[in-house]
Design goal:
This protein is 57% helix and 14% strand. α1 (2-15) packs across α4. A 3-stranded antiparallel beta sheet has the order 1-3-2. The longest helix is centred in the first third of the chain and has 14 residues, at 2-15. By secondary structure, it is α+β, with helices and mostly antiparallel strands.
Length: 76
């Protein structure tokens, strides 16, 4: 989760928008994980309303929560 949160924050910042167009298998490859693991983590974050997902896209909604995860802290 920490590497995935960092990746989502960095990519959204580089693009200048909160929406990341990418498949889950590519995200998993980028963070050194399995697609299934990424799917579970994204699903949990979606349930907390920290992100929104659609087909091949992730929208970062709550940057602070993902930032806390990326630095190893506890999200609000």
């Amino acid at each position: 989760p920490q590497r995935l949160a960092t990746l989502l924050l960095e990519v959204s910042e580089l693009q200048g928008q909160p929406v990341i167009h990418c498949r889950q298998d590519i995200l998993a490859l980028a963070v050194g994980s399995r697609r299934e693991t990424v799917a579970v983590v994204l699903s949990q974050w979606r349930d907390y309303d920290w992100i929104q997902t659609r087909y091949r896209r992730v929208k970062v909604v709550h940057r602070e929560a993902l930032h806390q995860i990326s630095v190893g802290g506890t999200p609000p």
